[in-house]
Amino acid sequence: MPRAQLAPVAAVDRRKLATARELADYCGVPLATVYQWSHRGGGPRMIKVGRHLRARWEDIDRWLDEQAIDAA
C-alpha cells in the first residue's frame, strides 16, 4: 500500500523572534526594563520559549505604535 503524500506547507515569510537583549536595544531601554515588562506587564507581548523570553517583531512594532503620543 503506497504511503500518503503530505501536502506541502505554504511558505510563510517568518522573521526570527526578538531576544530580550534585542528588544532592549531596539527600544533604547535597559535589559532590566524588558524583564520588568514581562513580569509586571506594560510592554509588548512576550513569549516564553523554555526559560527564554522572546517577542515577535510584529508585536513589538504594534505595541510601539500604540505608545505614540499625538501632539496637541
From TrEMBL:
Pfam families found in the cross-reference section: HTH_17 (PF12728)
InterPro entries the record matches: DNA-bd_dom_put_sf, HTH_17, SinI_DNA-bd
Q: Which residues form the Helix-turn-helix domain?
A: 19-67
Top-level taxon of the source organism: Bacteria
Q: Output the Gene Ontology terms for molecular function.
A: DNA binding
The protein's matches in SUPFAM superfamilies, at most eight in alphabetical order, are given as: Putative DNA-binding domain (SSF46955)
Its recorded name reads Helix-turn-helix domain-containing protein
Species name for this entry?
Answer: Streptomyces spectabilis
